[in-house]
Design goal:
The complex is a heterodimer of chains A (605) and B (117). Chain A has 605 residues and is of the alpha+beta class. Chain A contains eight helices and 36 strands. Classes of the chains: A alpha+beta (605), B mainly alpha (117). At the A-B interface, helix 5 and helix 6 of A face helix 1 and helix 2 of B.
């Protein structure tokens, strides 16, 4: 164990480290855990399996650490991982396999052999995307992906349960099989239509705890008005029809060849994923590294606060946004000086937090077009923050920060020193209300002349930071879903296409799309792309597939990094500019519908 | 204390004090529950939205409220279809049996407490 790792451990259990030398023993933590994953029937090592060591609640450090087996099935946890404590468990995850030996782990156990066996039915081991990947490709499918997997994985277990309930409905004409099937089609259509209306109601789940915006305070007509929802009624009907006609009637079984990761495994025996359990009442959807800080920082959308997480000890410190009311911190980015910037979905707030002084500054971004009240019609939904090639905050030539307002389809500028705020329209598509566009991310060009924006239900464009006019508008197929973009240093804009599960490379010098890459899983729903300048590579979150993808721009090939958690709705991925580690969190809406965790990944390359 | 914790604690206290029978929710507490759990995404007290109003449910079943309470509580948790048309109600696995019984009791006694005008 090197001095750095020993120091990290001793921060975790200082008393132990202090007394161990006096007793003439090596620290208990020095016992390193390793072993092998073996097929129970053939005795052969199983490669590429995720091995997750989970600690009991309250233990210092990560809640769980995952490594991967090498080509012979061997695995080793790194030296700085704490020895298993009483109640620790070891879980194997590999698509198509089931663990057959005990998950219990003895205290101070250092070597273990774990047996697995292949499954004849892999339904319980596949991600949400596996069910959609089998459905026929079409524009309608892209609309489903862009709008149903928007806030949570789709189809989640509850959605699949609902599909089964639809098939369990009794009644209809007796005897005549044709008439009975016609009746059942009507039932399916009507049920999915009702779900789409219900999902209009569920829009209010984006608002945080303590928010006055709730179904209890809004009249039903406004709730159901498609001018104030992410999709309009026409798109809702397309979704209902597609699901009624194509959604599997049962999701109890899937043959072993029914789903594959679709790309070579990027994870190696050196890859390590450390997960940190967060409160179930929190919804930390984004986590980042910030320059000059050893902590992970996260935005808790539900509890109106931001998180400071110590990756060594697991200690969590929370800072409530000092606003008289709910705020809903959503997007969080750092800047080169170490300050943290946070956009918020409620009460039109935007903030800066100084991690050293622990002081906040707040600004209100409230367009005049907003209606009074507590409905979606009264929410600007301050969404994304202008970033540079490192994913850090970027300002235009006049020092202004650019922000997207999802609720009003506007771009805003903020000059923090003066507090001056201005609003500019983004591109409009006929037939879409402002919020229907789903104006999303903003990336500032290297010359700071273009604030590149994406609209999930439309396309991309440049808002000229000097003239404030939209230029270089590029439309994609309906609901192909350009979402949270990134740029590199050579003029490429990398666009994750959430609906079509592709990545598009747009050349900002030629002003045209120059390449499109199909994701290995065409229902993976890439929420965000992150440029990794250190590795000259692109990271892509497979929000619907429990994976992270790595795209090599030189070859156009993807590799895949499976995540050790079901419902791992990964959105933004951060890269530590010093160590190259990745950081993110699991972020299903609404609160409580998925695992509440942040994680750090040592890529192992 | 958060909204959901406050509601849970309240219902737990009521269930405890009533020694096994369903807790009696006030109208305000019921409304709070409907909002916290998203019931009002489909149901309204008086109007038909995506699902029957609570008054309609009360009207149909209140004559046999003791016999129907457990059935209704199970429906709240597990969902299902058949009594109000062909569109299934979603399940609500995070609603506890105690909460479901308290809400079922509130619904079944609604008409008696608030007769139609």
């Amino acid at each position: 164990m090197n001095a750095f790792n020993r120091a990290r451990r001793c921060r975790i259990i200082p008393l132990l480290c202090a007394v161990a030398p006096l007793l003439g023993i090596a620290p208990l933590l020095a016992a390193e855990l390793g072993g092998r994953v073996v097929g129970v029937s053939d005795g052969r090592g199983v490669s590429g399996a995720a091995v997750t060591l989970s600690y009991v609640a309250g233990a210092p450090g990560p809640s769980a650490v995952t490594v991967f087996t090498d080509e012979k099935g061997h695995f080793n946890f790194p030296a700085d991982v704490a020895t298993p404590n009483a109640g620790s468990s070891l879980q194997i995850m590999k698509l198509g396999y089931r663990q057959v030996s005990s998950r219990e782990l003895g205290a101070r156990q250092s070597s273990v052999t774990v047996f697995v066996e292949p499954l004849a039915n892999i339904a319980a081991t596949v991600p949400a995307s596996a069910w959609l990947a089998r459905l026929p490709p079409s524009t309608a499918k892209h609309i489903v992906m862009a709008n149903c997997a928007d806030c949570h994985q789709f189809p989640s277990p509850r959605v699949r349960e609902y599909a089964t309930m639809i098939e369990a409905v009794r009644g209809g004409p007796d005897g005549d099989a044709v008439a009975r099937e016609a009746w059942r089609k009507i039932v399916r259509h009507q049920a999915w239509r009702t779900v789409m209306s219900y999902m209009k109601s569920k829009h209010y789940a984006i608002f945080p705890d303590e928010s006055p915006a709730s179904l209890d305070s809004v009249d039903w007509q406004t709730v159901q008005n498609d001018q104030y929802t992410f999709w309009n009624d026409r798109m809702g009907e397309v979704i209902a029809n597609y699901l009624a006609e194509n959604f599997p009637h049962s999701s109890d079984s899937m043959l072993p060849d029914g789903y594959q990761l679709g790309a070579s495994l990027g994870a190696t025996g050196k890859t390590v994923i450390r997960e940190y359990k967060l409160p179930d009442t929190s919804l930390v959807r984004e986590a980042i590294f910030v320059p000059h800080s050893r902590y992970v920082w996260g935005a808790d959308t539900y509890k109106n606060q931001i998180l400071r997480l110590d990756p060594d000890t697991g200690e969590q410190k929370w800072y409530r946004v000092p606003y008289q009311g709910s705020t809903g911190p959503h997007t969080i980015v750092g800047d080169s000086s170490g300050l943290i910037w946070v956009s918020m979905v409620d009460h039109n707030q935007f903030a800066r937090f100084d991690p050293v002084s622990e002081k906040w500054a707040l600004w209100t971004l409230q367009p005049k077009t907003l209606q009074a009240g507590n409905s979606m019609a009264s929410a600007a939904v301050v969404h994304d923050i202008s970033i540079d090639e490192t994913g850090q905050l970027a300002r235009d030539a006049s020092g202004k920060i650019w922000l997207t307002l999802l609720g009003t389809n506007q771009m805003a500028t903020l000059e923090p020193a003066s507090g001056d705020v201005q609003f500019y329209p983004a591109a409009q598509v006929p037939g879409l209300s402002p919020v229907n566009h789903m104006l999303y991310s903003v990336v500032l060009s290297s010359d700071r002349k273009c604030a590149w924006f994406s609209q999930v239900n439309a396309g991309i464009g440049c808002l000229d930071t000097a003239t404030k006019q939209v230029r270089y508008r590029t439309m994609f197929g309906e609901s192909d879903g350009p979402r949270r973009m990134a740029r590199d240093n050579t003029g490429n804009l990398w666009i994750p296409m959430f609906g079509s599960s592709q990545v598009t490379r747009y050349d900002t010098n030629q002003h045209k799309v120059v390449a499109t890459y199909d994701l290995p899983d065409r229902a993976a729903a890439p929420y965000a792309a992150t440029w990794d300048e250190r590795r000259k590579t692109l990271w892509v979150s497979g929000a619907n597939a429990d994976v992270i993808y790595r795209l090599d721009p030189a070859t156009g090939k993807f590799t895949v990094y499976p995540l050790p958690r079901a419902m791992a709705f990964v959105r933004q991925i951060g890269v530590d500019e010093k160590t190259g580690r990745l950081v993110s969190a699991y972020g299903n809406y609404p609160v409580g519908s998925g695992p509440s965790m942040a994680f750090i990944m040592d890529v192992g390359d | 204390m958060t909204t959901q914790y406050a509601l849970g604690a309240l219902i737990a206290a009521l269930v405890w004090s009533s020694a096994g029978s369903a807790a009696e929710l006030t109208d305000a507490q019921a409304r709070h529950f409907f909002n916290a759990k998203g019931c009002n995404g489909c149901h309204d007290v008086e109007e038909v939205h995506l699902a029957p109003s609570f008054r309609s449910v009360s009207s149909r079943y209140s004559a046999d409220k003791d016999g129907r309470m457990e059935e209704l509580a199970q429906k709240i948790i597990h969902g299902g279809a058949g009594n109000w048309g062909v569109v299934p109600m979603i399940s609500n696995p995070k609603v506890t049996l105690e909460e479901a019984r308290a809400v079922a009791s509130w619904i079944l006694t609604f008409n008696a407490r608030h007769p139609s005008k």
